[in-house]
Amino acid sequence: MTLDDAEQNKIYQIVSICGNARQRLSELGFNPGCKIRVVNKHHNGLLVINCREGQIALRKEEAECIQIEELDV
């Protein structure tokens, strides 16, 4: 499953990151093992994500590069 498929307000863990955006996403704190939560999904494809201690907005194309798994909390 990719981050683009994630539901709002569920907790996920990043499994891997692929594609050309890997370096940029890593610099933003998106790394394997990181726990994240989708705060909001906008109709234009923009996702607002809680990652570490901040909120970051990602485009749909970036979210499709992040492989995740849902955590049972």
**C-alpha Rg (nearest Å):** 11 Å
Q: Name the helix and strand elements from N-terminus to C-terminus, one letter apiece.
A: EHEEEHE
The biggest beta sheet is recorded as:
5 strands, antiparallel
* C-alpha geometry: globular
Instruction: Specify the structural class.
Output: mainly beta
Q: Mind telling me the CATH superfamily name? A: Ferrous iron transport protein A (FeoA)
Bin the strand percentage. Answer: 35-45%
* Count of distinct structural domains: 1
Question: What is the level-2 CATH architecture name?
Answer: Roll
**Low-pLDDT ranges:** none
- Number of E strands: 5
Instruction: Please give the CATH class.
Output: Mainly Beta
What is the terminal separation in angstroms? 18 Å
Q: What is the arithmetic mean of pLDDT?
A: 93
CATH topology: SH3 type barrels
